[in-house]
Design a protein that fits this description.
273 residues, alpha/beta, D-Maltodextrin-Binding Protein, domain 2, five-stranded mixed β-sheet, 38% helix
């Protein structure tokens, strides 16, 4: 009876081994999964590059596309996504402070130089008096746009204002240009109605504009506005998100950015852990 029991147990265990081998996918531990929010260009395109890098480490990446600058941070804070990738550091810090969100960033990835575009003039010198100039209406990008206009010699901005400058900080305006603030995503569509528009590179690229060719003037590549991988504060030590951060700052991503965007997007790698 004991021999029969031992034999039966052996057969049963052998059967389990065969079943496990045949149906390995069913009994294997599930791969880690990440849901990351991003604007389509270039952020979602860059995330597509890191998908196979993460897959090789057992991490499945799902990209959730957004077309505005508000929803991705709210979705992150609420736990609907694990991270987002669409914004620069000043915008993240300002938005988080204003909305009292518990979010930070894990890696700096790239810079999208902001540029000035026009369908009416080919040079800053050709701008007429009282020209209509569109800029983003969110606090950090509007200040950034005003500083770019100052660099081009179109206006002067109070030095004390810095990157938080508003239209009320303009101290000189020799051509009496009219500053019109619009949602950043609407600016490419406003070119038919404006003499000039200051546009973030991601929206310029979506509108088939090539910043290094089509912009009348553009930020330098040493701009402090690095785009980052944003996460919740409590997830700063999350190993899966750290793998994503490493993948986003890999040579594969740098090569893709240089080849795909040809200076319109510039690698600016830096890990924040």
């Amino acid at each position: 009876m004991k021999a029969f029991t031992r034999n039966t147990a052996s057969i049963f265990l052998a059967g389990l081994v065969v079943f496990a081998v045949m149906w390995g996918g069913a009994v294997a531990a599930p791969a880690a999964k990440l849901k990351v929010g991003a604007t389509p260009v270039p952020h979602a395109e860059i995330l597509e590059v890191v998908k196979p890098i993460l897959a090789a480490k057992g991490i499945a990446l799902e990209i959730i596309e957004f077309t505005d600058y508000v929803t991705p941070n709210l979705a992150l804070n609420d736990g609907d996504i694990d991270a987002n990738f669409f914004q620069h550091v000043p915008y993240l810090e300002s938005f988080a402070k204003d909305r009292r969100l518990n979010i930070t960033y894990l890696a700096k990835v790239h810079i999208e130089p902001m540029g000035a575009y026009s369908r009416r003039v080919r040079s800053v010198k050709d701008l007429p008096n009282k020209a209509k100039v569109g800029i983003p209406n969110d606090p950090t990008n509007s200040g950034r746009a005003l500083l770019l206009l100052q660099k081009a010699g179109l206006i002067g901005v109070d030095k004390k204002a810095g990157i938080t400058a508003t239209v009320f900080d303009i101290v000189s305006n020799p051509k009496n240009i009219q500053i019109i603030e619009l949602d950043a995503a609407q600016l490419p569509r406003s070119l038919e109605d404006m003499d000039l528009a200051i546009i973030n590179s991601n929206f310029a690229l979506e509108a088939k504009l090539v910043p290094t060719k089509d912009a009348l003037f553009i930020e330098d590549s040493d701009s402090p506005y690095a785009n980052v991988l944003a996460i919740r504060n409590v997830d700063k030590s999350n190993p899966t998100l750290r793998e994503l951060a490493r993948a986003l700052t890999s040579k594969e991503v740098a090569d893709f950015i240089d080849s795909k965007y040809k200076g319109s997007v510039v690698p600016a790698f830096g890990l924040n852990f």
